[in-house]
Amino acid sequence: MTLFNVRMRAAQGGAHEEGGIHISGGERLVDRAELTDAVSALVDRALRHEAGDADFINVTIDRIEQHQVVSIEALPIRTEYATDAEEGRLAARRLLESSGVDASVAAFGVTLLANGAAPGGRVMRGAAIVGALEAMRLEPDRARGVRVAGIDWERQTLDTWRALMTADGLARPRVWEALALASKVVAQPDVVAELCWSDDPSYVTGYVASQLLGYVRIPHLKQRGDALGGRIFFVRQGVDIADLIHRLEVQPAWIDRLP
Ligand code: WAQ
Ligand code: MG
């Protein structure tokens, strides 16, 4: 079967490369029958985003063969208890530590996202990479970061997952997209854990994900109205960064198994 790897990125004030501010992005892996709908949904997302009016939208479509697609299992999902951002950030640090991230590095990570990890305290377009045992940033570009792409759900698997999650109110695109991304990220043997919360001012839930703990949602990781957020991938020492980035950005993968 032929699949299409679709990537969208949108900015305001010109293209990203020309200093435009990142508005939104998205990636899908779809078959021919779903392609035009997927593209139009991504363009629609760019135009409606609460971060601002996009005046630059880039959509890239690459055709790939199904045998090139790596199979990944969805992480199990649970929700941690936290009533405000302070509690949530403490919980995040604790969960990162349980996953194998050094305590001082976990604290560094939370502060990094809280202050805006891109130059000038801005939001990165992708993720930062930080050593799990040493608070050092390893991504080559601190504004762009690493953008995970080539990840999506196999249709049947998503339908089953949605049916299982409906009662919990989790059968929403934002949740299943984040779960797919995190499942691909922590499936990499060099990744110890991921920390994420949205830069969307109205979306305050984030997560810590790891192979050990699964996908742990944290209801409050920032205050409503806060426009900062981002992602950090905590990695083992001695990781081949170029190889890891290639697998995350280029290697197509889909979620075709449930835990
Ligand atoms: N690859 C790497 N980093 C990314 C990607 C990507 N494909 N997409 C976004 N980011 C980074 C970037 O820095 C964004 O600013 C940041 O993550 C947040 O992106 O209820 O909505 O799309 O279980 O705003 C998680 C909780 C929601 C969902 C995450 O992130 C739930 C979210 P957003
Ligand atoms: Mg966002």
Commentary on this structure:
By secondary structure, the chain is an alpha/beta fold. The protein folds into two domains: 2-68, no CATH class; 71-257, no CATH class. The chain contains six helices and twelve strands. The protein has helices at residues 32-48, 85-99, 103-115, 155-165, 173-186, 241-249; strands at 2-12, 21-31, 56-65, 70-73, 77-79, 127-131, 151-153, 191-197, 206-210, 214-218, 230-235, 253-257. Strands 5-10-9-8-11-6 form a six-stranded mixed sheet, sandwiched between helices. A three-stranded antiparallel sheet has the order 2-1-3, covered by helices on one side. The longest helix is centred in the N-terminal third of the chain and has 17 residues, at 32-48. The chain is globular, with a radius of gyration of 17 Å. The two termini are 25 Å apart. Pimeloyl-AMP is lined by residues 25, 27, 123-124, 126-127, 146-148, 174-175, 178, 181, 196, 198-200, 203, 205-207, 217, 229-231.
